[in-house]
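Write out this protein's structure.
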Amino acid sequence: MNSSLGVGLALGAAVIWAIGPLFTAAAARRLGPLPTMLWRTTFVTPALLLCVGLTGAAWPARDAWLPLVLSGVLGITAGDLLITVAFVELGPRRTVQLLTLGPCFAFLLALVVLGEVVAPRPLAGAALVLAAGALAVWTEHRGGTGAVEPGRMTARGFWAAASGAALGAAGTVLMRAAYRADPGLHPVAATTVRVGSAAVGLWLIPVARGEGRRMLAALRDRPAILRVGLATVTGPFLGMLAYVGSLRYLGAGLVTTLVSLSAVFILPISIVRHRARVGLPAVAAALLAVGGVALISK
């Protein structure tokens, strides 16, 4: 039962995080990656604090605070900032599909840091999901008439996405460490500490550079701020709550693998939004993903 709930939460995060990058990328192209990420985390922190009050969630035990804070700083302040750079360079679809590298880092880090060993059946399922993501990455996308898919493959974008995936995996493993330190850790409280720590880390960057006024000036761009608001709801609020909740029931590697299905879920969005054409490999990727999820949730 708990395993199925964890799978459901991770898949929910994957769906939400296939939609959110469209808003994040649109805002970052107007404002830049740092202002977009800074205001996204700043907007969501009060909402999460309100959720803590409404749910009566207990704050984490003392031993869980350090891994939670480090998870926010590594996974969001550094990792998501690099991923946002990739959104601008590569476009949402290419970036999300390259993030399928994340599970490789997560399985390795979880084994080394936490000693998490995955049973053969879910490991086989994870392999199928990874294969689905890899197939989605290499699926040929040919734009139809009037196709307007943004971004292009660049070395800077590739390394930003790969580095962001590695840092995100580190953040995931640290979240699992927090659950081990505090088995009763409430997902809402954990998300609040994690995202709030990331917000503080992001604000320290412009303050150190003397760019605080430039960050505030971004608020005058109403169309961009509207996109930041939509990215906030789909990213660090709904998506993050589902993601952090799933880590209570599943290992870091399995959660990261399931969340990487965003690479598959974003394909129909690309077809509708950018009029991209996808062929049979995309269908095969979806079928592999379904089979992998079935094995993981057994």
